[in-house]
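User: Can you predict the 3D structure of YceI-like domain-containing protein? Sequence below.
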Amino acid sequence: MFWGIWTLYLWIIIKSQKAMNKFSLQIIKTTLIAVFFLFNYATFAQSDFTLASGADLKVTGTSTLHDWDMKSSTATGKAQITLESGKVVNAKNVTITMPAESIKSGKSGMDKNAYAALKTKDHKDVKFSLKELVVKGAGFEAIGDFTIAGVTKSAKFPVTANLTGEKVTFKGQHDFKLTDYNIDPPTALMGTVKTGNEVSIHFNVTFQPTK
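Assistant: Sure. Here are the predicted structure tokens for YceI-like domain-containing protein:
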């Protein structure tokens, strides 16, 4: 009788330990899974960013007289940027809006002709909206839409993205034709000086975390 009770007691203890071991293993597995997902969330964190002041925006082109450029440092924008191990790996919902009459050449006559060509009385802004950022070698290819003089066209162009501290800087250049946006190349001096149809938008813009 004694040995039977003792054997039953030992059996209960062994079963209890096995149950506890299974329970402990389940807790460990659950904890590891949670840590894995938290680590990946932190590693691939997507955050909201806002365009910092002092954007470097420039439009360049040619004419029958000389090359020209117009510059602006006024723009607003926002983005959702994904970072991994101190690098930019993706961005979406990126928008940049520049007041069309914020670009200046330093020559009032040229500015006036440019604003007329851009139809700024009816279309106040030049806008870019990013649809997709595709990895291309050491940089990216931006795929999105430009809206210029009220006309929206799709665009693809190379960009670089660099993280410095908490700020992300995008640099790139988009080449296009004025006539793509139904813009007649401006002329001056009774038509003797004509702007070339091919122009480029250069940008060097920095986004900072939205506060």
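Residues 1-43 form one domain. The first strand starts at residue 46 and ends at 51.
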